[in-house]
């Protein structure tokens, strides 16, 4: 009766959660300013702009270009089209064409406050302008500027949900079919993961509505990946133990109870460690990272809840036949994977040599971080070039002495004239104009002499911030600077916090200092090696021209939390064997033999789900997916299989110092009877 009751409860929960899950995409915030900390200067500019008459402005640049030089007909067409834009919308100033020195390009800056604070209205405005501004017969027309760039980013993030989910499901399904070699078994954990994903989306929607947790396209994508990746990992561990217990117990319900007693603590401990590590992101200054912490943790915990309740209920109801054609027979010997016995044997024979070789290899790979490309620019944020990026590139070539991306300065209205005069005399400023006023603030539009996001523009922004007392300096270039500064600060604050948090949990779980220190050191080494491989691949092979500022922090959190996950699976079994009386070497090799297959399968699934991100159209997601997938594979097949096992053999009982297992041989603990016959 209990399994049916559990299934019924989940059906009721999804009936309630389903409509809420569908609303999650409606509350995503994907503007650049939504990723910045509240204290950043550029964030203050954006907030003050929203309070000015008309709200936040939408700034575009219409770019007309002909390689051989613009013709009089081209200029007439440009003037007519921009006039049509002005006739249909309230612009902050009449469009005025700015020709390039070589006569090949004409740009028309266009700005409106008409859409106000409505994202859909801004998108509609940009789309309408693009419909009006059309070229042909050799005349190229592109619509760029911050407004167009934000619209393109919003569309890309909005398009991620479906393809990401379908691709993730397909990858997990293929891997589960290969792992289980059963026409039915693979479908059960996949369905349960889908249920967990729906529940997590509903919970996150509630967090956004109730606690104003920032939800971005990036955090939503990562949550889905974690639900399917981590959830399938937990399912693999449970199903493996359940299959083993079915050879000892006649009834599936009793076998499942034994499986939950055996692996349940490890699964709960590992998921708690992952969630705790992710929640350390709440200490981040960056709004997007701070929001990702609870969102990702919700995904992991929902996956845990589903895999420890709904999955066991379904498996018990389906009985042994769910494993067909490899049905575990009652009384049969549990299957062992000889490949991991061979690996453990090699690690056990020369543990010190294996440790040294593995450490040198990880250290050598980590040197690749010095080859990582520089900070990612906005124009390089997309893997395929949208219209807004093409416009930026055209303008950069045609106007080398003028920025196409304005710097926005908000000055107290009473001092606006003095600030304007000071801005015009600041080094690196080409021009400065006064704009709207309201709420005690006046908007100034400053144009730099240097290209957007260049070293020269950064110097200009820094000079304005240093010289304009009481004013705030923002705009796209300043936002990118604040993003990089906050990411650097967060790396210094969150990384030690994650290490400390994970270390304390491992100490409490394993009752040892040495084993937790070993596991944490190993995953940190894996993180460095994975980033190093990224440095060898990103630009030379993938053509990525920059590194996302948030990549080091987010990849660290995911790799440390998820890597320790596998360490817990392995070391929990080592501890279990040691408490049962096994000698240290025997305990380590037995744990590898019994859990190696499931850890390898789990690693492949988790790496496969993160690898899905490498097919997404955003550079930041491609880089994160690559680094985490590579790190998980390194952790699974090098660190867990060889290095941790070798360390366990080399350290013997010292691995458990200062716990009781380090001092005296363990007293064998009572085991479940080998066979439990049904009455």
Question: How would you portray this structure in words?
Answer:
With 679 residues, the chain is α+β, with helices and mostly antiparallel strands. The chain is 62% helix and 7% strand. It has helices at residues 2-21, 41-51, 72-88, 119-132, 146-158, 161-180, 187-211, 217-246, 252-279, 287-318, 338-349, 351-366, 387-398, 416-424, 455-467, 476-510, 514-537, 551-579, 584-611, 619-651; strands at residues 58-65, 98-99, 105-112, 140-144, 407-412, 429-438, 441-448, 472-474. The strands form two sheets. A four-stranded antiparallel beta sheet has the order 2-3-1-4. A hairpin with a 5-residue loop joins strand 2 and strand 3 (105-112).
Describe what is shown at a glance.
This protein is α+β, with helices and mostly antiparallel strands and 679 residues long. It has 20 helices and eight strands. The strands form two sheets. A four-stranded antiparallel sheet has the order 2-3-1-4. Strands 6-7-5-8 form a four-stranded antiparallel sheet, sandwiched between helices.
